[in-house]
Amino acid sequence: MLLADEYLITDLKQKCEEDIISKLDSNNILQILLFVEQHSNIISQPLLEKTNSIFIDQFDKIHKLNPNLEQEITMVPGLMTVIQKFALKKIRKGRKVHFVVDDYEESDSDDYIRNYTQHFYQ
Fold first, then answer.
1. Which label site among 27, 48, 62, 99 has the fewest CB atoms less than 10 Å from its CB?
2. 29 contact partners, CB below 8 Å, separation of at least 6
3. What would the 3-class secondary structure string for the chain be?
4. In terms of pTM, does the model score above 0.70?
5. Residue 95 near residue 122 (C-beta atoms within 8 A)
């Protein structure tokens, strides 16, 4: 992929990225994440987002597979910040709050009964 970028072979670079995305799993995500972040200036946004997403979603499993996870992440300057920003963006994007009036009746004492239901979508 690096050579495809260097020689401006965009089709080959795109095929390489698609191949990497198709092979991402919890066993290889750390190595690919480190590579992607070290070369983030030439990597496409979908590959960056996919690696970050899988890393966040499968963090517990990845941590069990990689006992030196913290040390490896700190080898790439700024990687922890990127991961934290992505995680926060994902949380904010997924959570929406809606208030719904379930019941609206006038009681004998002229008080109104309102039941609010809070829905969280993720």
1. 99
2. 51, 54, 55, 58, 62
3. CHHHHHCCCHHHHHHHHHHHHHCCCCCCHHHHHHHHHHCCCCCCHHHHHHHHHHHHHCHHHHHHHCCCHHHHHHCCCCHHHHHHHHHHHHHHHHCCEEEEEEEEEECCCCCEEEEEEEEECC
4. no
5. yes
Per-residue 3-state assignment (H helix, E strand, C coil) for 6-32: HCCCHHHHHHHHHHHHHCCCCCCHHHH
Q: Please provide residue 91's backbone torsions phi and psi, each rounded to the nearest 5 degrees.
A: -65, -45
Maximum average pLDDT range among 2-11, 69-78, 79-88, 102-111: 2-11
pLDDT at 98 over 70: no
For residue 116, pLDDT over 70 is answered with no
Task: Please report the pLDDT score of residue 80 as a whole number.
Answer: 87
Q: Which of 78, 5, 19 is nearest to 50 (CA)?
A: 19
Question: What residue type is 27 in one-letter code?
Answer: N
